[in-house]
Design a protein that fits this description.
alpha+beta, 4 domains, Beta Polymerase, domain 2, 46% helix, 23 helices
């Protein structure tokens, strides 16, 4: 890598007041300071940065002294989070401000060892970063009022123009330092629409098993960003798969490969192909709930697949109870990834319920109304639409559900149930899992016109087994 940076003028850029203030304050105190990382990359691509990062020659103590509103959580690694004064910069986000540093060892493959960290200069700081397009330094306030300029020690400008994700220096060393960088390479390629440099991708394929050393929370966060921020989540899944990372973090999804489906219902191909097509059809910026439900909706098919003989003697692939099996598998997968319980419950419900949607035209009105009143129904309807578009392409059931939903919206709000759990206890029943179907059955009778509580309770023996 060159000892001196390649310096080139930047196009007109929009840097918010608070990051400018941080740069200006550090410069006024005599410290070399630049914007760095994803914010510079995104500005040069014409995208709006989500976060702002500053790198400087100032030591952590000096940064804290200049900014009384600061958080020293990362001070051991030379990082200070500078927090804006809300009276002066209302609505501004904090700016992570780091001292130029170099790191020599990463014993755990995740964090630099504090004992080996040393403060250094801009060049060495750029060389220790992950990818060339993330190591560009932007001077937003050059002297004399000239245009902003970019300093490039690593060839990031050329890779930005070529739309390439390339590890800085030896890819194997970069990934050994922090194995999460392998998933980050996939995310950057998928969200930016870039290709991954062949040598960088080869290193990921070799080192992919090492991703298991990364905490579930960090893997979860990268996976969710890949699924919800990619322009084409199906292509992103393909990158995860071909890199070897999918097999390591989601073996249940990798197992979808080669699981055949009846061609009359699924002319598109096996379960993996079907799932990838559905992911490609996701709307921009889907909820995590929807993206995960699409990814996992058929995760129960591989373990339930078997050939069944039809009455005419032909064989067909069948997947009995795959939705219920998939719901439990989804719970296990998302628990393993340390997802919040509400997200786990919603995704498991959607996976377990996705075949019931097909039964909706035969449902009695109360049951159909409950189906359409579920808090997840908006995402469930999108899931069903994608399922149809990625297979037989029939929209009959979706049209039926949308019409029913409009019809129910014009009807009175559902009344509260007349029979509650306490009434079942008073009738001599012991609380337990059987309460829910009994209460639902009695509520269905109420919605069908029975408004006398005593008459409903008189029907209780009909639902006891």
């Amino acid at each position: 890598m060159p000892l001196s940076p390649s310096i080139f003028p930047a196009p007109p850029l929009s840097v918010p007041p608070f990051p400018q203030h941080v740069v200006r304050t550090l410069r006024a105190a005599g410290h070399e300071t630049f914007l760095v990382g994803g914010c510079v990359r995104d500005l040069l691509l014409g995208r709006t940065p989500k976060d702002w990062d500053v790198v400087t020659s100032a030591r952590p103590d000096a940064i804290e002294a200049l900014f009384p509103h600061s958080i020293p959580i990362g001070k051991a690694f030379g990082i200070i989070t500078v927090v804006p004064d809300p009276q002066v910069f209302p609505g501004a986000a904090p700016v992570e401000t780091a001292t130029y540093r170099a790191e020599s060892t990463y014993a755990d493959g995740r964090h630099p060892d504090p004992g080996t960290l040393r403060f250094t200069d801009a060049r060495e700081d750029a060389l220790r970063r992950d990818f060339t397009v993330n190591a560009l330094l932007l001077d937003p306030l050059p002297a004399g009022g000239s245009a902003p300029r970019v300093c490039d020690f690593v060839g990031g400008r050329a890779d930005l123009a070529a739309r390439t994700i390339r590890a800085i220096g030896d890819p194997s060393r970069r990934f050994a330092e922090d194995r999460l960088r392998m998933l980050r390479a996939i995310r950057f390629a998928a969200t930016l629409g870039f290709a991954i440099d062949p040598a960088t991708f080869a290193a990921i394929r070799t080192l992919a098993p090492g991703i298991r050393d990364i905490s579930a929370e960090r893997i979860r966060d990268e996976l969710l960003r890949i699924l919800t921020e990619s322009a084409d989540a199906g292509t992103a899944l393909g990158l995860l798969d071909s890199s070897g990372l999918l097999r390591e973090i989601l073996p249940e999804v990798h197992a979808m490969h080669g699981v055949e489906q009846p061609p009359e219902f699924h002319p598109e191909g096996d379960v993996y192909v079907h799932t990838r097509l559905m992911l490609s059809g996701l709307p921009p910026h889907p909820s995590a709930r929807l993206a995960l439900a699409v990814l996992l909706h058929d995760v129960g098919k591989p373990p339930t697949a078997h050939l069944a003989t039809l009455p005419d003697g032909t064989l067909r692939w069948r997947f009995e109870s795959h939705a219920a099996v998939g719901a439990e598998m989804a719970r296990g997968i998302l628990a393993r990834l340390r997802c919040p319980n509400t997200l786990i419950d919603d995704v498991a419900h959607m996976v377990g319920n996705h075949m019931r949607i097909a039964e909706s035209p035969n449902m009695r009105p109360p049951k159909l109304r409950r189906l359409l009143a579920a808090p997840t129904i908006d995402d469930e309807l999108v899931l069903h639409r994608l399922d149809c578009e990625s297979s037989h392409n029939s929209k009959n059931i979706l049209d039926f559900l949308l019409a029913a939903r409009a019809r129910f919206a014009a009807e009175p709000v559902l009344p509260p149930p007349l029979v509650m759990g306490r009434d079942l206890i008073a009738a001599g029943l012991s609380p337990g899992p059987a309460f829910k179907p009994i209460l639902q059955a009695l509520y269905d009778l109420q919605l069908e016109g029975e408004t006398d509580k005593a008459a409903l309770l008189a029907r209780l023996p009909d639902f006891l087994h």
